Amino acid sequence: MMKAFETFRGVVMPLDRANVDTDAIIPKQFLKSIQRTGFGPNLFDEWRYLDHGEPGQDCSNRPLNPDFVLNDPRYAKAEILLTRHNFGCGSSREHAPWALDGYGFRVLIAPSFADIFRQNTIKNGLLPIVLDEQTVDALFALAGGETALEIEVDLEAQQLRPSSGEPIAFEIDAFHRHCLLNGLDDIGLTLERADEIAAYEQRRQQQAPWLFAS
Amino acid sequence: MAAQSASPRTLFDKIWDDHIVRTDEHGTALLYIDRQLVHEVTSPQAFEGLRLAGRKPRRPEANLAVPDHNVPTSDRHLGIVDPISRLQVETLEANCREFGIQLFAMGDPRQGIVHVIGPEQGLTQPGMTVVCGDSHTSTHGAFGALAFGVGTSEVEHVLATQCLLQRKPKSMLVSVEGALGRGITAKDIVLAIIGEIGTAGGTGHVIEYAGEAISALSMEGRMTVCNMSIEAGARAGLIGIDEKTVDYLRGRPQSPTGDGFEQAADYWRSLNSDPGAEYDRVVRIDAASIRPQVTWGTSPEMVVPIDSEVPDPDAVADPVKAGSYRHALTYMGLEPLTPIAEIGIDKVFIGSCTNGRIEDLRAAAEVAKGRHIAASIKLAMVVPGSGLVKEQAEAEGLDQVFIDAGFEWRDPGCSMCLAMNADRLEPGERCASTSNRNFEGRQGQGGRTHLVSPAMAAAAAVAGRFVDVREF
Ligand code: SF4
After folding, report:
1. Aconitase/3-isopropylmalate dehydratase large subunit alpha/beta/alpha domain: from which residue to which, for each copy (chain B) (predicted)?
2. What pLDDT is stored for residue B472 in this prediction?
3. Hey, which of A153, B70, B257, B318 has its CA 20 to 30 A from B109?
4. Distance, in angstroms, between A78 CA and closest chain B CA?
5. Hey, is B463 helix, strand or coil?
6. Rounded mean pLDDT of chain B?
7. Residue A78 in domain
8. Which domains does chain B have, with CATH numbers?
9. Are A20 and A83 a contacting pair, CB within 8 Å?
């Protein structure tokens, strides 16, 4: 069961890179876990730490990379990730949104996201927001200032309200918005359609019996 | 199979229409899924979800599971040494037992990379919807199946309901027209396409590949092309059905048999886009212009022909792009304008779901035959895509060709495509790889990956640097 998405105000962390892939979000060695949680400390592991991380390791004593934005004290409590186009490309690993969520991010803003990744974020109650390049550029300019930018995210009204500047409207698929606002369990919803699925299977079996042979 | 509609439809439209259980008020379809492939990395949390909710798979027989990402490619009799990897593989075995799902375990000769064994077993058939918790599920689109990667929550959704909630993606036609030049392979085609449209070029789309150069490819070459659709950002890749598709499927263990096969084949032959069908986007590529491709950076779109140079970021107008070029060159340890043919390599990897099939091994062996890897090469490994590919290669004597040339001949699995097992690059090592991703750290932290075709990889192993296989 996913948590319902409520309006909140959060700090924006600007990650000024395009094509950030899911291998970078959570490197492969952490995919060996059979759990759904515990990935937060290894989010962006290879960029964030100076040493090589292994699963099960205590990350609190590892040397931090001072040049990586996640380690910048201005963004210590960031809940909104601002980034460039095609974020989340590559592998379908749901460990990527699990790591972002585990770290504390709730909203991602970019000019575009990779398809599977975007789907995975929504399934985990994270909100991916697509804004045009110009608006993203403007937010980057604001977020890089001495005091961190804060944004109030209102999914109900489909609006971002930055601590400085004008409110920004955003688009989102109506079904995704509905699921996020209500924290819906997809599987439960689909199971309510079991009769329709069975009817489909029966119809299909007559047309294409080989699909049901084994 | 759906009612004939008057307007011409694409292959994608046909498969989509045939799988809609219902459409809700938001326009989201409940899409029926015919087959699901399962591997050890993206499934444990899905099975755990089922258990926690007290749910059962709706059609256990519609799933096939295999461990591939974590398995060792040498000394298999020792089992999996890394305890965390071992636990993941054992968890898959236990889940399959508990939920009644067929498993090709590590000792089974049919074990291999999930996207190699699906087609090999005849499990992937035209007109099906196929999913797997793995982005390279797009491979199966070579059979005119709508095949796409999903996340773990969706793996659980399919197990429990045999359906997925999906918005219909857009459609894109990539037509590769005319004939390929000598020595140019499916891998070069798909790298050239990605170079042209970019890694986000297909985002939100299902790509259908067509044109003479695609028709001329074998089923295996078609799988290589569809495999890397995800590197072009696409949801899936698709190729229409012809007699090569039907012939490939005849007699496979999970193909329909007897009259059932002919009945299925008649339906399969209807699975092509209608003349005049419209796509949201069309890209045309001249096959004759494609040269052997080598990636130079850390994204598959950072690719150039062998007879050119590493690009100069200063000549790139877009500042975001120039920035990522600089970043990539630093990571890759390359200077702008270095000729590709002057880049020396340390390791060679031939394998993966992109290029680990029998034809790929044949192409590499043809180059390696009677030659030897360069003294500067620390490791050159050949990892067959499945146990059956391995058997076939050994029956043809390819293993001996590789061994004589100084390559290591390994057991099947994902291996150094993503380095989750012991096969990996050390920091700074440079690799010619037939896999699909050159991301930072993909083949090992600090490792530098150059994506190429199997023949180009074998030639690079022999020369110790990249060479044009056409002049080799
Ligand atoms: S071979 Fe590589 S790309 Fe293919 S499934 Fe395995 S890890 Fe993924």
Report:
1. 13-464
2. 85
3. B257
4. 23
5. helix
6. 96
7. yes
8. 11-167+245-267 (3.30.499.10), 170-242+278-289 (3.40.1060.10), 293-471 (3.30.499.10)
9. yes
pLDDT(B373) > 80? yes
* Residue among B152, B261, B421 with most chain A CBs within 10 A, to mutate: B152
Query: In this structure, what token pair is assigned to residue B456?
Result: 């180009």
Position of tokens 């699995």? B413
A-proximal residues of B, 38-77, CB under 8 Å: 41-42, 44-45, 48-49, 53, 55, 58, 61-62, 69-70
The continuous run of DSSP H or E covering B102 comes out as strand B102-103
Q: Which residue of A has its CA nearest to B419?
A: A28
B163 is in an annotated binding site: no
Ligand 1 centroid to Cα of residue B283, in Å, is 27
CB contact at 8 A, B155 and B261: no
Is B414 labeled as ligand-binding?
yes
Distance B334 CA to ligand 1 centre (A): 26
Closest CA to A24 of A40, A42, A12: A42
DSSP code for B421: S
Percent of chain B clearing pLDDT 70 (strictly above) = 99
The answer to the question of residue A153 being in a domain is: yes
Q: Is A211 inside any structural domain?
A: no
Is the pLDDT at B374 greater than 70, yes or no?
Answer: yes
Q: In the predicted model, is pLDDT for residue A67 greater than 50?
A: yes
Nearest ligand 1 atom, CA B352: 1
pLDDT band at B2 (very low <50, low <70, confident <90, very high): very low
- Give nearest CA residue, ligand 1 atom 2: B417
The tally of domains found in chain A comes to: 1
pTM, rounded to two decimals: 0.94
Tokens encoding A34? 């059979």
Q: Using one digit for the tens of pLDDT, what is the confidence trace for B243-265? A: 999 999 999 999 999 999 999 99
Question: Does position B1 have pLDDT exceeding 50, yes or no?
Answer: no
How far is Cα A202 from Cα A190, in angstroms, rounded to an integer? 18
What range defines the domain where residue A20 resides?
8-183
Q: Which residue of A has its CA nearest to B200?
A: A86
Residue B4 is predicted with a pLDDT of 53
Q: What is the ipTM of this complex?
A: 0.93
Token readout for B153 is 């929550």
Token representation of residue B142: 């070579």
H/E element holding A109?
strand A107-110
Residues of A in contact with B324 (CB under 8 A): 17-19
Site to substitute for ligand 1 among B43, B88, B134, most atoms within 8 A of C-beta: B134
Q: Nearest CB to A187: which of B87, B127, B156?
A: B156
Residue A114, domain CATH: 3.20.19.10
- Reported as a single tens digit per residue, the pLDDT across B291-338 is 999 999 999 999 999 999 999 999 999 998 999 999 999 999 999 999
